[in-house]
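Thread: "does anyone have the structure for this chain?"

Original post by V.I.:
We have the sequence but no experimental structure in hand. Need at least a predicted one for the grant figures.
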Amino acid sequence: MPRKPAHVRIMNKAVDYLGRYASSRHKLGQILQRFASRKLTDYDADDIAAAIQQTIDQCSHLGYLDDRQFAVTMARSQRRLGRSQTVIRQRLRQHALDDDTISDALAEADEDRANGDLQAAIRFAQRRRLGPFAQRDSAHHQRLDAHQWKQRDLGAMARAGFSMATCRQVLDHDDPDTIDDLLHQLD
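Reply from O.Q.:
Generated one for you, tokens below.
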């Protein structure tokens, strides 16, 4: 049975991958390069490199790949999880996206709200049960005083990439209901 040309096998792999996952051009290139190094060892390296580039260009032309839309989708997803702007920028840079694309994606994910990082910090605090969302009634939680808990929570939020001002805005509240008032003041 004659072997398939490299560009056919690479295109099949690209379509299979893109059918399951959203991707950037850079990430797809990495996936196809790994595939080629595992499965296409008996093909010419120059043919493989050309086939990978041709496949990426063709997938972009067909609309299977769109770095801008990928960045927006990923930024929105990360914001829903309570990720800071700093962390989202790092994750998008790993996909070799330029700063303009990343900035546009963050603006679109925040829907041009000035308090996008504050909303993400609140979501982060809710998910991790920090500050006003903590349930510190148990015996386990009573081993530290309120100041120590606040310092731990502040450290967790700072490590997540939130500014100290944003962390303090969230953690200075004792009641989750007052957080809504904070958001309404900023709008």
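V.I.: this helps a lot. DSSP finds ten helices and no strands in the chain.
O.Q.: and The CA atoms of residues 25 and 56 lie 7 Å apart.
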